[in-house]
Design a protein that fits this description.
Number of helices: 5
Radius of gyration: 16 Å
Number of domains: 1
Number of strands: 4
CATH topology: Arc Repressor Mutant, subunit A
Strand order of the largest sheet: 1-2
Helix content: 40-55%
Distance between the termini: 39 Å
InterPro entries: DUF2513 (IPR019650)
Shape: globular
Protein name: DUF2513 domain-containing protein
Pfam family, one: DUF2513
Strand content: 15-25%
CATH class: Mainly Alpha
Organism: Gimesia chilikensis
Structural class: alpha+beta
CATH architecture: Orthogonal Bundle
């Protein structure tokens, strides 16, 4: 499965909002894999368990076990970590996000994060190098 940075952003925004935004529109298995990646990347706080024969985690749990209701559905709540907050602070602005994805969207997470941060620095008077 290919990592979908737009879905990662949507999931982080969803959890940051205490699950009050609409849940991202994707198949359950795709969302589950992205949640695993978010935990592995230390963007959300959760635990991985029950590795498959290949060593890949198949189950995950929020660290505090909270479940939040959204529009008649129940969702596990995963709080953002410091890294998750830092990333979503950079990725929140829709215009900045779209520009970043059009230029470096096919590259690694670190390149995307660095580009977003560069756009922020360039936009703040007095921070330009």
């Amino acid at each position: 499965m290919k990592r979908d940075m737009n879905l990662i952003r949507e999931l982080l925004l969803f959890y940051e909002s205490d699950c009050s935004l609409p849940y991202p529109d994707a198949h359950d298995d795709v969302i589950a894999q992205h949640i695993i990646w978010l935990i592995e990347a230390d963007l959300i706080a959760g635990r991985l368990a029950d590795s498959s024969a290949s060593g890949s985690p198949r189950f995950f749990f929020p660290i505090d076990g909270r479940v939040i209701e959204n529009n008649g559905q129940e969702y596990n709540y995963f709080p953002l970590t410091w890294n998750g907050c830092e990333f979503i602070d950079a990725a929140r602005d829709e215009t900045r996000w779209n520009k970043t994805m059009s230029i470096v969207g096919g590259l690694t997470f670190e390149v995307i994060k660095t580009y977003l941060q560069t756009l922020i620095v360039q936009s703040v008077t007095g921070l330009k190098s």
